[in-house]
């Protein structure tokens, strides 16, 4: 019997992240686990005050509900640490992220995550 592997999809406050959620659904079905959709908002940023960003997050919440995924918005000044803690707490076996435009490894969330947890969590980067 195949081990369950919970899937985490990291989203930003953009409606286009729906495609990442749909890819997460495909992996959830393969991995037989649960699907978590997570947005980490920087502390002190009022994303709900921006109508476009708030609307996009509402949209992603609705998409998440439609595909039976839990969506969580977390606040943190350390995005990588927060994602790692969420993975550990929820037994995440795969993270799905959109491709980043950041080219510097020192500033890249993907590079930092890969270095920190790629031995225990599969990281799937989806090109834009």
From TrEMBL:
- Domain of life (superkingdom): Bacteria
Matching entries from Gene3D superfamilies are given as: HUPs (3.40.50.620)
| Cross-referenced InterPro entries | Rossmann-like_a/b/a_fold
Protein name from the UniProt record: Universal stress protein family protein
């Amino acid at each position: 019997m195949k081990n369950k592997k919970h899937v985490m999809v990291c989203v930003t406050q953009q409606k286009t992240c729906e495609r990442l959620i749909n890819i997460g659904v495909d992996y959830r079905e393969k991995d037989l686990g649960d699907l978590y959709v997570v947005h980490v908002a920087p502390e002190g940023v009022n994303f709900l005050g921006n109508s476009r960003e708030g609307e996009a997050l509402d949209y992603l919440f609705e998409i998440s509900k439609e595909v039976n995924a839990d969506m969580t918005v977390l606040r943190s000044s350390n995005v990588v640490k927060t994602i790692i803690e969420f993975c550990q707490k929820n037994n995440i076996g795969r993270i799905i992220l959109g491709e980043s435009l950041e080219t510097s490894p020192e500033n890249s969330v993907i590079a930092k995550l890969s270095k920190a947890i790629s031995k225990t969590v599969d990281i799937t980067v989806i090109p834009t």
